[in-house]
Design a protein that fits this description.
By secondary structure, the chain is an alpha+beta fold. It contains five helices and 15 strands. It has a 15-stranded antiparallel β-sheet that branches. It is globular.
């Protein structure tokens, strides 16, 4: 799901901050979708440090599926997630329910340290790995359809469908993949944040001409965010069904889920000590 993740990162990379004010009434005219998405992008840039005051726990489950649709292997990872310069950083603390041993912890610390250093140098609106696409470019590649207003989790949302345009000239893997995506997006109307998104491939997508991998038509991804503490939008979970052929030989079928929880707000206390310490605020969701 690398290319779907890259597409989603364009829309969700920067911190999402709650805005004041009530949603528009059901009878109000629908906003122009292009203007709406640029508004989402602008809101995401505001007060971006707020999300860096939060940590949360994630549970990822990956199931390998055989040709008959039966689960043949299940792996889990539990992590502690935090934000650096608008990028989410995940530290793995358990695999298959077991805490990492000393050697694994050392390697994980080294990996996370390098990732943090990279995040500090990478603009918030660009993914740490892979290619990014600007909101403006996404809107050029995608054909937006059927805008409407719905209630989503008891909040007003602007909903629209989108599909990649085959006639657009694209450059790079992320743009090329976007032409073969379709989906639906739910934008929280009051806060101008992506509350829910569903994306799927409408055609096979070949990486390296198919020599590296070929993502099969129907592979799909779902993503959710919600408002925490009345001030910031954070991930609540994701789900993906992934089918691909790797190196022209190995068929891969996987079902992936992520569940995010235990949101905690903290601050850094450097008083009375040379070393800053992370201290829980006591203000929990």
């Amino acid at each position: 799901m690398i290319q779907i993740a890259g597409f989603c990162a364009t829309l969700l990379a920067a911190p999402a901050i709650a805005q004041q004010g009530a949603p528009m009434s059901a009878g109000a005219p629908l906003p122009d979708i292009r203007a709406l998405m640029l508004d989402v992008q602008e809101h995401q840039k505001q007060l971006e440090k707020v999300r860096e005051n939060y940590t949360y726990s994630s549970l990822q489950t990956t199931q390998d599926i055989d040709s008959n649709g039966q689960v043949k292997k299940t792996e889990t990872e539990e992590g502690e997630d935090f934000f650096v310069n608008g990028h989410v950083i995940e530290r793995t603390v358990k695999k298959d329910g077991k805490p990492l041993d000393d050697h694994e912890q050392q390697k994980e610390t080294e990996r996370v340290t390098k990732l943090v250093e990279k995040a500090e140098k990478t603009p918030p609106d660009q993914p740490l790995e892979g290619q990014s696409i600007s909101i403006s470019r996404v809107l050029e590649i995608m054909d937006v359809r059927n805008p409407r207003r719905e209630m989503f989790r008891e909040r007003a949302a602007i909903v629209f469908d989108f599909a990649g345009r085959k006639d657009v000239k694209t450059h790079g893997l992320a743009e090329d993949a976007s032409k073969k995506l379709q989906g639906t997006m739910w934008i929280d109307e009051a806060d101008r944040q992506v509350a829910h998104m569903e994306v799927s491939f409408t055609d096979n997508f070949r990486v390296g001409g198919g020599l590296v991998a070929s993502v099969e038509k129907g592979s799909s991804f779902r993503f959710d965010q919600s408002l925490v503490n009345g001030e910031v939008w954070l991930p609540t979970g994701a789900e993906a069904n992934f089918q691909a052929k790797v190196l022209m030989l190995k068929n891969v079928r996987q079902h992936f889920t992520e569940r995010d929880s235990d949101y905690k707000r903290f601050h850094v206390d450097a008083s009375g000590s040379k070393d800053a310490k992370v201290v829980p605020d006591g203000k929990q969701p």
